[in-house]
Design a protein that fits this description.
Elements lengths: L10 E5 L3 H13 L4 E5 L8 H9 L8 E3 L8 E6 L7 H18 L4 E4 L4 H11 L7 E3 L3 H15 L6 E2 L2 E4 L3 E4 L5 E2 L2 E2 L12 H15 L6 H19 L4 E10 L5 E12 L2 E5 L6 H21 L1
Parallel strand pairs: 1-2, 1-4, 2-3, 4-5, 5-6
Antiparallel strand pairs: 7-10, 8-9, 10-11, 12-13, 13-14
Helix pairs in contact: 1-7, 3-4, 5-6
Length: about 300
């Protein structure tokens, strides 16, 4: 069967009308990843001042341009980023997502959908349930920000450059993220095994630092530093799809089996490429990490029951 994604142009859609959508647009303009960025307001919404101002004042990077449009303008989009702001009434949010997905299935059935707006995991589940496209073509940014914060704080604690730290956070964005301590490495040395650069693994200090990082990650566009981190995470996800980089990223997608968890969307190390999720690289978790991941699944199920 012919893969229609091969003929898609470098158009990317951004659905949203608030600060999250503005940050996504800024991130994609900064890296010049697409020929054409189209900003589409959510169902029943309109452009906010921040996004309109960005459209008027941005300096194009490479061949990138940003303009407003409607869902029908996304007919040849490679990627659509959902950057809608959370609302107080979950039923209203789920109805808006269903309306949006129905239109996207009609005009852009081959596009990869990336969820960047909160609540990430619950929205990803709702879109997968509503869409007719393969579930592999829908994922959320997951725990990319928590992973970035963990690497930064480990590097600071051990006084090494971030590029020398390997770390991954799995689970639920914004409340039940699970740092995989057993696989945090400096160089090739696990920090949980003895001393690294003269320092022992201090579990309490590391957890305290991680919790502070999660607090920042839960509010991605509230201040300049966390906004930069959020924009970097979005850029990494979009670039890996558009350029088929097949990077391993902790994105949120449907989980059906790993660690005896089924029927929810959670973050796990995932190969991200042209068609979205191309498989997972599952870590060998310690027993307490498995239990924490299952607890994260329970949290998402509870929230999803309200969200649905």
């Amino acid at each position: 069967m012919e893969d229609r994604t091969a003929s898609l142009t470098q158009r990317i859609g951004i659905v949203g009308s608030g600060p999250t959508a503005a940050s996504v647009a800024h991130a994609l303009l900064r890296i010049g990843i697409a020929k054409d960025l189209v900003s589409v307001p959510p169902p029943g919404g309109s452009e906010t001042h921040s996004l309109t101002s960005l459209m008027r004042t941005h300096t194009p990077v490479g061949a990138s341009s940003l303009h407003s449009g409607i869902v029908e303008d996304l007919s040849d989009a490679r990627v659509v980023v959902i950057a809608m702001e959370p609302v107080e009434d979950p039923s209203q949010e789920i109805e808006s997502l269903r309306e949006l997905v129905a239109k996207l299935d009609n005009v852009a059935p081959d596009a990869v959908i990336i969820v960047a707006g909160k609540p990430v995991d619950e929205s990803t589940c709702a879109i997968i349930q509503a869409t007719e496209r393969p579930r592999e073509r829908v994922f959320g940014i997951g725990t990319c920000m928590e992973t970035m914060e963990l690497r930064r704080r480990v590097s600071k604690h051990y006084e090494v450059d971030e590029s020398s730290v390997y770390a991954m956070v799995i689970g639920h964005h914004g409340g039940a993220a699970v740092p995989v301590w057993s696989h945090v490495l400096i160089g090739a040395h696990p920090i949980v095994r003895g001393h690294v650069v003269g320092k022992p693994f201090d579990r309490k200090a590391m957890w305290d630092a991680f919790d502070r990082g999660c607090d920042r990650a839960a509010h991605p566009v509230d201040d300049k530093r966390t906004r930069r981190g959020f924009e970097q995470c979005v850029a990494d996800c979009v670039r890996s799809v558009v350029r088929d980089e097949r990077r391993v990223l902790p994105v949120s997608a449907r989980v059906d089996g790993p660690f005896d968890v089924r029927g929810v969307c959670l973050a796990l190390p995932t190969i991200v490429g042209r068609n979205g999720c191309h498989g997972r690289v599952l870590p060998d978790l310690a027993p307490d990490e498995v239990e924490a991941f299952r607890a994260a699944a329970a949290t998402v199920r509870e929230k999803r029951s309200v969200f649905a």
